[in-house]
Design a protein that fits this description.
This protein is an alpha/beta fold. The chain has 17 helices and 13 strands.
Length: 439
Amino acid sequence: MQKFNSDFYIGAATAAHQVEGNNTHSDLWAMEQMKTTSFTEPSLDAVDHYNLYEEDIALMEKAGLNAYRFSIEWARIEPEENCFDEAALAHYQNVIACCKKHGLEPFVTLHHFSSPKWLIGKGGWEAETTPDDFEKYVRYVMRAIGKDVKYVCTINEANMGLQIAAIMERYKRQMMAQMAKAQMTAPQPENAAETDGNVQVGINLEKMMADQKLAAQENLEVFGVEKAENFTSMRTAQGDLLIMRAHQKAKTVIRELFPKIKVGLTLSLHDIQAQPGGEARAQKEWDDEFIHYLPYIKEDDFLGVQNYTRSLIGPDGQLPAPDDAELTQMNYEFYPEALENVIRRVAGSFPGELIVTENGIATADDARRIAFIRRALTGVENCLKDGIALRGYFHWSLLDNFEWQKGYSMTFGLIAVDRTTQTRLPKESLSFLGSFSSR
């Protein structure tokens, strides 16, 4: 493989809550502290990217990367409803300026899973008021940063809530079937969320299910509602439409203020492979995961493709990985070829540009990360040779960070972090990825 052209972005990605630390006004921060929490540990200082972003951006420049995808934290910008924090906004303006100083194109995500705590008290991502609340936040942010960015992602993995809902329903059915067979004492599969559906986010499904009743009471105390509808809760069909409305409102605001900015969202997409007899189920999986969003995103400038593995679908649904498959820390099958397959499939339906906004591997073995990157980028190169309008590749993640409910046990990063000192320890994979960039 050779270097990609200078107009192709090679970068790394982060999410604010996972790296910044002390996101004290967010819903997830509150959930981490609860007695009935499904988080294995709290985020606390995370990897202190809020204070150390200049060092991290300089490391990307040194490695040869030419772009950085990061998110702006709504809970910092608007910690209380209608109360905006100018210092927090200035911080993100400084991050953008730092990117430009070091020759990296900033790709901004306006919402990456975490939300203000007050939003959940209003009904969260199932409330009719949320699209308007999001629009107001977006307008405030974009007025300040719009002149300095070319690409803006409104919402990260807009389909995540539906994926989690589907997996939880499958898990409930499994539990009911076991009860009917009087197998209540049989051990449950570890990491059930990953073994059934490969949901591309770290969740503790069994803990969430077991704690539902206790959590309802504590939610009343913390949020003022029995059910905390955060972004990665089980999404209803109506909630799914609300997310699309929020996206479209944000897109309208951005185009009104800065018509030249390219706007899109990202989706969590699997390489769904039908096995004999599973063709109809596999098509339904793809329809739910991607096709049904097309009417709402077809006029977007780009789509962020986020892929980590494949899904094998048989006549009865999700199949486990092959017996001889290599599994990552997240229990995903090591299958970097999935990315090329997903890009090609999406390109057949979506008319705009495509950007790989997340692709990566949780592993303690950096040699396997390098192998994953090499094979994934080979697929990217193949797509470019065939004329697919692919504009960039962002590896997940820049740093070993807080993998949501899984805590700090999942190491996705190109840079390790000694969290006792917050010392950065670049891995060989960082410079390997940078070697494909033309700065």
